[in-house]
Design goal:
Blueprint lengths: L1 E7 L9 H13 L3 E9 L4 H10 L4 E6 L5 H13 L1 H14 L3 H9 L13 H12 L4 E5 L15 E6 L3 H11 L5 H18 L4 E4 L2 H8 L6 E4 L18 E5 L5 H21 L4 E5 L4 H6 L7 E5 L4 H5 L2 E5 L9 H9 L3 E3 L1 H4 L11 E2 L3 H13 L3 H16 L2 H10 L3
Length: 419
């Protein structure tokens, strides 16, 4: 049986984020085809989740790196990085001070990845841990996941086939962040170009780069030639939902705020769409499912009439029943796993173009798309006021998913890249 080492910043369990779900689905099949070793970081409080995953994946060799307190070398490395980027950050603060005028500007300033795209963000000991694991066996393939570990190719011996799985093109996300600022800055564009060059240069050190959508693959084809580029959308098994959508009594968003595209999307929706919808449909409710911090929730005081933040829910399909799923995502790349969850749950969804990017759903047939507040609200209103539109969209979306993105077809597509 062939030998593969997969290194990732996050343990692919529990299944409470799109990134974890994407890893879990692929690795769950790979472990039947390969001798899999999985290296990742974890905290002491994650031990229970690791034990649960070990029960599910008894044939996987787990190599966790336990994150505790930062060592002196970690602190020194962090200081050196901050010093190397000192002038960029200093100039950036000045640009933000004079340029930021709107609440969105301030939100973007606090969360943009422009000044941390080149940082590692994990203890330096994880690099040593990874190198030690590499010495334990002869790996035919070494697969690196997520932008945070993009520079790991330099540690992989030439005897192994080096694969990078790109869950989100960082330079695409940053370009979209820049487009949302209310002001233009030549300096911020320069930082963006510098980050993009770093990202593309790092990718060229791999033998293969695998994106999660055909759209991301086409974008990369314009800029790099050296590694083999492939796309492999995430397979999700069709859920056995008891939902039979007839009408909606609420809206639902799925995703935690620690992933900034989620936070920006919910902020945009609450600030621009929610009150107009409530004034027209007084009984309408909104549920934001996922981990959200109380200070953020409190900051929306006055906008939260009939809005709930239930956190993580055990029975997702029950929470989604009789609702319209909203995807007001305006930044990021890759694919939104949340949409596939909604389709499997048997409910219609309204999205922006960015939100549905990389998936096979068509506006007016499988879903409704709106990019402005007026378009987004209008799309929701059409489903609320129609007797059969929501059911028709939901039915078409499930048929499209089963034909275009069937689980078996996508698993075969991923396994083919290792041949």
């Amino acid at each position: 049986m062939r030998n593969i080492l997969i290194v990732t910043p996050y343990m692919p369990f529990p299944l409470n984020s799109g990134g974890r779900i994407a890893q879990f689905e692929f690795n769950n099949e790979l472990r039947h085809q390969f001798k899999v070793t999985l290296a990742f970081t974890m905290k002491p409080e994650d031990q229970k989740d690791l034990e649960e995953l070990k029960k599910l994946w008894k044939n996987v060799n787990f190599k966790p790196y336990l994150i505790t307190k930062k060592t002196f070398s970690d602190q020194l490395g962090s200081v050196l990085f901050r010093f190397s980027e000192f002038f960029n950050r200093l100039i950036g603060k000045g640009v933000f001070f004079f340029g930021c005028k709107t609440n969105l500007d301030k939100l973007l300033q606090q969360n943009t990845t422009l000044f941390r795209s080149k940082s590692f963000g994990f203890p330096r000991g994880f690099i040593d841990h990874f190198r030690d694991v590499l010495l334990e066996d002869s790996f035919e393939y070494v697969q690196v996941e997520f932008h945070q570990l993009i520079s790991f190719a330099k540690y992989i011996p030439r005897s192994s086939y080096r694969i990078f799985v790109h869950h989100e093109l960082r330079f695409v996300r940053e370009k979209r962040e820049l487009e949302l600022f209310s002001f233009k800055s030549g300096f911020l564009k320069w930082v963006y170009r510098k980050n993009k060059k770093f990202e593309l240069s790092a990718l060229e050190k791999y033998d293969m780069v695998c994106t999660l959508s055909d759209v991301d693959k086409l974008i990369l084809e314009k800029d790099i030639r050296k590694p083999l580029l492939v796309s492999s959308p995430v397979p999700i098994k069709a859920g056995k939902s008891a939902n039979d959508f007839l009408s909606a009594s609420k809206l639902v968003f799925l995703g935690g705020e620690d992933h900034f595209p989620n936070k920006e999307g919910v902020d945009w929706f609450l600030m621009n769409c929610w009150m107009p919808l409530k004034s027209k449909y007084p009984d309408l409710k909104l549920s934001v499912i996922g981990k959200w911090h109380q200070p953020t929730i409190d900051s929306y005081a006055g906008l939260l009439d009939a809005v709930s933040f239930p956190g993580y829910v055990d029975q997702l399909y029950e929470a989604l029943a009789d609702s319209i799923f909203i995807v007001p995502i305006r930044i990021g790349s890759g694919i939104r796993m949340k949409i596939i969850e909604a389709v499997n749950a048997g409910i219609p969804f309204v999205s922006t173009e960015v939100g549905v990017e990389g998936l096979c759903f068509k506006n007016g047939h499988d879903c409704l798309i709106g990019n402005t507040p007026q378009e987004f609200c209008s799309s929701i209103a059409k489903i609320l006021e129609s007797k059969d539109l929501g059911h028709r969209l939901m039915t078409n979306a499930r048929n499209t998913l089963s034909v275009e993105n069937s689980y078996e077809k996508l698993i075969e597509r991923r396994l083919a890249i290792y041949n």
